From TrEMBL:
Residues 27-315 form the Carbohydrate kinase PfkB domain. GO terms for molecular function: kinase activity. Transmembrane segments: none annotated. It holds the Pfam family PfkB. Keywords: Kinase, Transferase. The keyword Kinase applies. This is Carbohydrate kinase family protein. It comes from Pantoea eucrina.
Amino acid sequence: MTARSGILAAGTLLVDYVQRISHWPAQGWLAEIQHSDKGSGGAAPNVLLTLARMETGLPLACVGCVGNDGEGDYLLHLLDAHQVDRRFVQRSADRITGMTQVMTTPDGQRTFFHARGANTQLDVAHFSEVNTDHRIFHLGYLLLLDELDRADAEYGTRSARLLAQMQQRGYLTSLDLVSRAGEYRTQVLPALRWLDFLVINELEAQSLTGITLRTKQGVSPPAAFAAAGEALLAQGIRQRVVIHAPEGAWGSERQRDGQWQPAWRLSSEEIVGSVGAGDAFCAGILYASHEGWPLDDSLKFAHTCACFNLRAANALDGARPLAEMQRWMAQAICDVR
């Protein structure tokens, strides 16, 4: 039997237009666009292209939907240029490629204008022929995938059905969400029992568990993250739950002690943008999990991936080869607040 290797990622495929604006205008008034940047967006390309630019040598593949338009051409060209297998990316005749306009003000605050486009069509049927030798299957973002977010009489949701099928085909399974206000546990919790890895931020974990992880005063103590991690593991996740925040990240594993890892210290001058930082963090966890790294090294490396991401305006240009990132990690200093 061929040993499984590599990462197969599926879900949202977007083109991000990142606009740095002079200020946020009152309704009806004008603000100047001072810089504009175009890049890939969405869970699947951001994770895969980050891993490709790390030059890990892992086989990488993508599943998703794009429109039959220039933006779709752009995303497919990026996947080809990074040697990501995209034979399972389908083109829609009646939907545009998903896109997001990201407006960033001088204080770093971001506002997103999003069009889901062809991502709304991705469903379980798109995976009927997907049975590769990759080790990990990663799906994101739930709550932006209309068909997969629908209810399912047997599994609870279509995404839970898909993840169950992919586990049964021999993949280790991973999931990420999009941060969204409101009640969405019924759309997410059914999927958790079919996961090996869950990588989400503190606001998403707070919504799923009801445990307060951030207030107006700041991030909660690690003990609160530990409680949230254990609550999520109790939903049936088989290996790891990682909850990340700007200040640090908590990891929980079955039958092992959890751990809080503070983020690395960066000066304000080093931070150019934060688009895709969560995906870069997720890419780090997926690579470390694929390689069987212990939890502490996994969290440190994920923080390193996020730090490199913060040095660029878009989701990809900060990524560097693995060896360079590991050298930087060896001398990085924790940002203890």
